[in-house]
């Protein structure tokens, strides 16, 4: 399966793209987010949460590491920027009945099989960003 590549010109478009994912990313799904600081990882998660009816701030949980939102489905938002590994955060306990978004997912190795996670990469482009989406089970084995 070829990954989907989407050009995202503005922050508003990134939120709308995140919102559009509620139709495909569901409870039990884990999303590994890749992209440099300021790429738009948190903005995408914000759009997803707003589409679920969440009203209120969505910030990178850089200091508290994990934020849980009581939406339907419930969402776990993780930011591993300041740690080496996801171990000790108890993420395993919520994977089955939450949607789990992981920023700096290179530090989540071993949380689940790589091809069981959605992979979303956000790259800086001349005009805005390019988002690359690889659905779960479709990631190439490496
Ligand atoms: P990350 O979580 O990847 O560090 P954030 O989502 O917190 O990034 O921040 C992205 C920043 O980039 C925001 O300040 C946002 O307004 C800005 N921005 C500018 N253009 C875009 C775009 N096309 N998509 C997403 N964010 C954008
Ligand atoms: Mg962030």
Task: Tell me the layout of helices and strands.
Layout: E1 4-8, H1 11-20, E2 30-34, H2 41-51, E3 66-69, E4 75-79, E5 99-103, E6 118-125, E7 128-134
Parallel strand pairs: 2-5, 2-6, 4-5
Antiparallel strand pairs: 1-7, 3-4, 6-7
Helix pairs in contact: 1-2
Q: How would you sum up this structure, described in words?
A:
The protein is built from two helices and seven strands. A seven-stranded mixed beta sheet has the order 1-7-6-2-5-4-3, covered by helices on one side. Helix 1 crosses helix 2. The site of adenosine-5'-diphosphate (ADP) has 17 residues, from helix 1, helix 2 and strand 7.
Small molecules in complex: adenosine-5'-diphosphate, magnesium ion
Q: List the secondary-structure elements in sequence, H or E.
A: EHEHEEEEE
Low-confidence spans: pLDDT under 50, at least 5 residues?
none
Average per-residue pLDDT, rounded, comes to 93
Summary, kept brief:
It contains 2 helices and 7 strands, in the order βαβαβββββ. With 142 residues, the protein is of the alpha/beta class. Bound molecules: adenosine-5'-diphosphate and magnesium ion.
Which features would summarize this protein structure in a list?
142 residues, alpha/beta, 2 helices, binds adenosine-5'-diphosphate, binds magnesium ion
